[in-house]
Amino acid sequence: MKHGERRAYLLLEDGTAFEGKGFGAAAVSVGEVVFTTGMTGYQETLTDPSYYRQIVTFTYPLVGNYGLAPGVDQSWQVRAFGVVVREAAPTPSHRRSVETLDEYLRRHGVPGIEGIDTRSLVRHIRREGTMKGALVSTGPGEGLPDKAALWAHLEQPIPRDHVAQVTARAPYRMPGQGKRVVLVDYGLKHGMLESLRHRNCDIYVVPAWTPASEILALRPQGVVLSNGPGDPQDIPEAAETVRELLGRVPLFGICLGHQVFALACGGRTEKMSFGHRGCNHPVKDLTTGRVMITSQNHGYVVSREGLPEDLEVTHLNQNDGTVEGLRHRHLPAFSVQFHPEARPGPDDAAELFDRFLEEIDNAEAGVEEGRVYA
After folding, report:
1. pLDDT score, position 372
2. Could you tell me if 246 and 265 are in contact, meaning their C-beta atoms sit under 8 angstroms apart?
3. What are the CA-CA distances from residue 111 to residues 53, 85, 182, 325, 361 (Å)?
4. How do the domains of the chain map onto residue ranges?
């Protein structure tokens, strides 16, 4: 280690250890160690609330090469708890860049480690599954704590209040001249708001715990269930709310919102071994036969076994066959596991927002013609 360089250490709960160079904040952080496969989009990834309490490993070997730019963040702060890279670019090259990855993480108080064999780490996670880890990044000239000190951090359970930490603290509105949409915030990305604003929707954002009665009091024409972090079974109140909304207003669930929708209909969710994270995941639309490249970030999935008869599978992951989309057979409600708003990634699935607005039109036409769906 050269003079003045910072040291860093990543310890996994199974005892596997990696030592490298520190960057970002000088801090100790504990979270679930995961990996993401996107070649770009690190700024969007780090600020996506779905990565709350996760130490994110980037499989692409050089991260930070185009710097950090204004207007790209997907929430108000970095939500990841730590960053693991092969190499953090010290001199980014892009006209919009305003700071380096190191400066950005230091400003947000998040530690990072570079110079380790990220391929080995990812293979280990794929083989053993995601697990808890402790990441320590020291200040200049500081020594690393011994393993016993890090083990003390790892022995503490990770709190399961993920959604409570990232949801809106109070309702707010983003006015528009189009459809009135209530967006239930389990940890939404700014890209989701942008996608609805692009369609001129009149948006009301409400916290995750908002009861169905208060949502309906806003007289929405449709309700969107947002993405978010953690296990959907940790927020049973959300499924109960969606259960009360079903049949009373068209619904569109995204990522965690997709899982909550499935639970509300009587389905089951289960934890994946290492999840889907990145902006290059192929998904097949079973209705059209079209394969889309999608942005994803989830460690839980809707189980295909025991799926209620009222739910129809509409999308499948082409890599492992897991459920990526659902539709209610009788009510105006559907959901997808991936992110149609991208941020980062391709916009192959952006049309799903248009499909949601069409569902609203069809539901309203049905009411006018006396075809009651509630």
Report:
1. 47
2. yes
3. 13, 12, 36, 35, 48
4. 7-157, 163-368
Q: Are 296 and 277 in contact (CB under 8 A)?
A: yes
Active site residue 255: yes
For residue 282, say if its preceding peptide bond is cis, omega within 30 degrees of 0. no
CATH T-level topology, domain 7-157: Glucose Oxidase; domain 1 (3.50.30)
Query: 201, 255, 265, 279: which one is catalytic?
Result: 255
19 is catalytic: no
What is the mean pLDDT for each group of 10 consecutive residues in the chain (374 residues)? 77 95 96 96 98 98 96 97 98 94 97 98 97 92 78 87 97 98 98 98 98 98 98 97 98 98 98 96 97 97 96 98 98 98 95 97 75 47
CB neighbours of 123 closer than 8 A, spacing ≥ 6? Answer: none
Whether 279 is catalytic: no
Per DSSP, the three-state class of 298 is: strand
Q: Is residue 137 a contact partner of residue 27, using CB atoms and an 8 Å limit?
A: yes
| CATH top-level class of 163-368 | alpha beta
